[in-house]
Every structure is written in structure tokens, then in C-alpha cells.
């Protein structure tokens, strides 16, 4: 478990370092972290722009409060300004607090992943960018995430059932109406280019180690979800019977519980600006 956590941390550090390499911040820059999360990018931005300023956005009030508690130990003049907004809400929120502000750099890790209309989000964000500014993103593409059936030994299931499992799981990622999976790097490029930005895109396939815990298997196979999204089992139920899903769950438990597996994902790094050259 410690090794898995360590490798996950190393992966995040690599993503952070790549973002700041692309951003090329200067000490006086004003920076906006579009999805502050636990502060991975926010705190590095604070370090790199001591003469500028950092604004950190969270989607909900609870998330914003958690970040405010984190930065409370910093001297007041060194703290980021914490905002609560989705990307499309940001211009209005900023207009009420800091009218006419424009950013030298906007950075984000998985900032667009929750936006159902990425073109609309890009249209709102471009209003906040200085003419010489740059937008740098690292976005995980859910459409290309690790398939769970690939973690199983296909010979351990009836051939017909395994093929139906593959079909059922792949259907999750082919849902054109699901804003979580109905886009990829090309769509993100198009959204940004449509608002007048020049865009450079670099798609990277990443492998990290994942510990398969009882809680993780339970989350996959529970009938209800803590979020608004259906669970893995709920998706499978569209094509498989309850008994078949139980058989598959038991195979996951026998084969993978407490094992460490290679987990595949695709991360796209985006650098966009009014002055980028294609």
C-alpha cells in the first residue's frame, strides 16, 4: 500500500512539474488555478510568483473551505484568494470580487473533466486571459481509462460471459450522451480553438500501480452510488443478469483482492494562448 501511494504521489509530481514547465511563470505573474483540489498546483504557484498573486478555484463551498483551512497557516499576504465556482461561473464570481482582473496564466489539473459543455467553459475562461497570457491544462481522458475486464484472466469465466462483460463495459465509454466520457483530446482542442486560442496538445499514456482493496471492489459493485453517476455494477446490469454480475464480482475478489495491478490512463497536456504558433 505504501509503495502504491508513493508511486501515485510521484505521478502527481510529474504532472505538476510538466504543467509548470509549460506555464513558464515569472515572479510577478497573476495565476489562476482552475481546479485547486488539495493544493497540488496552488502551493507551487505561490512559490513561483512571490511578487504576483494566486487565485484558487474550487467547485463547491465545502471544497473551498477545506482549502482555506489549509492555507490559513500562511502569512495573510502570501495566501491565495480562494473562489467557489464552476468554470462557467468564474467570470461572474470574479466580477463581483475583483472586477476587470485578467490572468497571466491559468493552470488546471482535470479542470474540464466535469464540464458538460467544454466549448462554453472555454468561451467563459478566455475572457479572463491576458492577451499575452497562457492556459496550461493536464486532463485525464476518462474515455481511455483502465478497463476492469482486462485485469481478469479471461479463461476463468465462461467464454460467452466474458465477451458479454467486455461488451457491457465498453458500452460505458461509448455513451455519446455522457459528458464524462463523450470527449477526448481532439474535442478539447476544438473547444479551445473555437474561442481563438492557438493550441498545442501532447497526449501521454501513463501507468501507475493500483492496490485493489475491499473498499474499491465494494465501490465497483454496489447497487447505489455516493455520486450521481451509476456504479460499475449498475452499468453492467444493463446487459447482464444479477447472477452473472455476482459471478464476476466473485472472480474479482478471488483474483484481485489485495493485489497490486498496473493501472492505465491517458493524460493530455494542453498549452493554449492567443500567440501560440501551430
From TrEMBL:
UniProt xrefs under Gene3D superfamilies: Vaccinia Virus protein VP39
Entry superkingdom: Bacteria
SUPFAM superfamilies: S-adenosyl-L-methionine-dependent methyltransferases (SSF53335)
Annotated protein name in UniProt: Methyltransferase domain family
Amino acid at each position: 500500500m505504501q509503495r502504491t501511494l508513493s508511486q501515485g504521489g510521484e505521478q502527481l509530481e510529474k504532472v505538476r512539474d510538466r504543467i509548470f514547465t509549460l506555464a513558464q511563470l515569472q515572479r510577478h505573474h497573476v495565476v489562476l488555478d482552475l481546479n485547486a483540489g488539495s493544493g497540488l498546483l496552488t502551493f507551487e504557484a505561490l512559490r513561483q510568483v512571490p511578487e504576483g498573486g494566486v487565485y484558487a478555484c474550487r467547485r463547491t463551498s465545502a471544497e473551498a473551505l477545506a482549502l482555506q483551512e489549509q492555507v490559513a497557516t500562511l502569512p495573510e499576504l502570501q495566501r491565495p484568494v480562494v473562489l467557489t465556482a464552476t468554470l462557467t461561473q468564474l467570470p461572474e464570481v470574479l466580477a463581483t470580487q475583483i472586477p476587470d482582473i485578467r490572468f497571466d496564466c491559468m493552470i488546471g489539473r482535470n479542470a474540464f473533466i466535469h464540464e458538460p459543455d467544454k466549448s462554453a467553459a472555454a468561451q467563459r475562461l478566455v475572457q479572463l486571459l491576458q492577451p499575452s497570457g497562457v492556459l496550461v491544462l493536464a486532463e485525464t481522458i476518462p474515455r481511455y481509462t483502465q478497463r476492469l475486464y482486462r485485469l481478469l484472466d479471461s479463461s476463468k469465466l465462461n467464454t460467452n460471459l466474458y465477451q458479454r462483460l467486455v461488451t457491457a463495459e465498453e458500452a460505458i465509454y461509448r455513451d455519446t450522451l455522457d459528458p464524462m466520457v463523450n470527449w477526448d483530446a481532439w474535442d478539447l482542442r476544438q473547444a479551445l480553438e473555437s474561442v481563438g486560442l492557438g493550441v498545442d496538445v501532447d497526449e501521454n499514456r501513463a501507468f501507475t500501480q493500483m492496490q485493489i482493496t475491499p473498499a474499491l471492489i465494494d465501490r465497483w459493485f454496489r447497487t447505489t452510488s455516493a455520486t450521481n453517476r451509476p456504479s460499475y455494477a449498475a452499468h453492467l446490469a444493463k446487459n447482464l443478469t444479477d447472477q452473472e454480475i455476482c459471478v464476476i464480482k466473485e472472480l474479482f475478489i478471488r483474483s484481485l483482492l489485495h493485489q497490486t495491478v498496473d493501472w492505465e490512463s491517458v493524460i493530455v497536456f494542453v498549452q493554449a494562448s492567443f500567440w501560440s504558433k501551430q
